[in-house]
Amino acid sequence: MIVFLEFLVGVVACIPKLRKVVYGWFLNWPDNPRPLTSLLRAAYWRPQMKSLGRGSRISHWVKIRGADSISIGENSHITNRCILDGRGGLTIGDNVLVGYESIVITNTHNFENPDIPIRLQGSYRKPIVIGNDVWLGTRVIVLPGVTIGDGAVVAAGAVATQDIPSYTIAGGVPARVIGKREKKEQS
To answer: What is the pLDDT of residues 59-90, one digit of tens each?
Structure first.
């Protein structure tokens, strides 16, 4: 049944006018069973993205820009009200959790010349890479050019302006390493 629904949503995603109607009416309907509609939303985005792994879910009210430059691995979950900007290139690994209202943005404004209004200075794009088994907490912001290593945790409300090493815990504005994730010995 799920395979048929994924196929049907994939077909609808290829027809722009029908896609808008179905997406707006059914996939954003809050009363639908969330696991089902998360998988259907993923099926909707799959043909539009560079790649979207099996088992990955996209929750309600997620905004995606530049989908054709976004790769998401398997079993990752993009939760409610997130914004993914892939215009500069966005790679998200396997088993990643992106918390509520997080923003991952690959495009931003130039502002170097104070003699020219910022809105006239154009913008630049840099790719973002988020490794495997990463958790971005609620309302995390990841800025252009940042790489977040495998197994990292970024605390709620943090702003990642620089790379975050693997298996570390980062928090704050700007985000800094505040701890490490170490394997516990099993008894």
So the answer is: 888 999 999 999 999 999 999 999 999 999 99
Catalytic (active-site) positions: 109
Q: Read off the tokens for 163.
A: 């790379």
CA trace torsion 24, 28, 30, 36 (10° rounding): 130
Band of pLDDT at residue 13, cut at 50, 70 and 90: low
Least confident of 11-20, 35-44, 45-54, 159-168: 11-20
Helices 34-45 and 2-13, interaxial angle, to 10°? 40
Query: Residue 3 — left, alpha, or beta (φ > 0 → left; ψ -120 to 50 → alpha)?
Result: alpha
pLDDT over threshold 70, residue 58:
yes
